[in-house]
Amino acid sequence: MIEVGIHLGANGTTGKEWKKLLPYLRSRLDKDCNICESLTSGPYHAIDITREAIREGADAVIAVGGDGTLHEVVNGFFWAGKPVINHDREDAHSTALGLIPLGTGSDFARTWGWKNDPYEAVDRIVEGLRSRVDVGVISGENEESHYFINVADIHLSAKAGYYSSRYKRFGNLCYVVGALQAFMGHRNCDLRVKVNGGAWEICSQVTALCIGNAKYFGGGMRITPNGDPRSGEFEVVMLQDFKWYDFILKLHKLYKGTHLTVKNVSSRSVHSIEVENISVSGSVYVQSDGEHLGFLPRKFSILPSVIEMIC
Question: What's this model's pTM, rounded to 2 decimal places?
Answer without folding.
Answer: 0.91
